[in-house]
Amino acid sequence: MPAQVTDIKQFLEIARRKDAKGARVKKSAKSKDIKMKIRCKRYVYTLILKDSDKADKIKQSLPPSK
């Protein structure tokens, strides 16, 4: 099931959980949105960003095993 997260700090906390299996980054060509998705045991958590600089910083701060 999907769940949308709006807070960046909460998204990073979810990424550091033990049940977080993988992270994906999707870039939209039309709307210039960047979606970051983290798969956990029960939900796929999604963070939608408009700023690509913020997305790059968040991508670098994700745990390396994700």
Word description of this protein:
This protein has 66 residues and is of the alpha+beta class. The protein has one domain (2-52): Signal recognition particle alu RNA binding heterodimer, srp9/1 (2-Layer Sandwich), CATH 3.30.720.90. The chain is 27% helix and 32% strand. It has 2 helices and 4 strands; from the N terminus they run βαβββα. It has a 4-stranded mixed sheet. Strand 3 (34-39) and strand 4 form a beta hairpin. The radius of gyration is 11 Å and the shape is globular. The two termini are 19 Å apart. The model has no long low-confidence stretch (mean pLDDT 92). This is Ribosomal protein L38e. It comes from Capronia coronata CBS 617.96. It holds the Pfam family Ribosomal_L38e. Keywords: Ribonucleoprotein, Ribosomal protein. One of its GO terms (molecular function) is structural constituent of ribosome.
SSE blueprint:
Layout: E1 2-4, H1 8-15, E2 22-27, E3 34-39, E4 44-49, H2 52-61
Parallel strand pairs: 1-4
Antiparallel strand pairs: 2-3, 3-4
CATH class group: Alpha Beta
In the sheet with the most strands, the strands line up as 1-4-3-2
Element-by-element helix/strand order: EHEEEH
Tally the beta strands: 4
Distance between the termini: 19 Å
Structural category: alpha+beta
Do you know the CATH topology? Signal recognition particle alu RNA binding heterodimer, srp9/1
Give the DSSP E fraction (strand runs of 2 or more residues).
25-35%
Radius of gyration using CA atoms only: 11 Å
Note poorly predicted spans.
none
Shape: globular
- Biggest beta sheet attributes: 4 strands, mixed
Mean pLDDT: 92
* Helical segment count: 2
Q: What is the CATH-assigned architecture?
A: 2-Layer Sandwich
Q: Please estimate the helix content.
A: 25-40%
Total of domains:
1
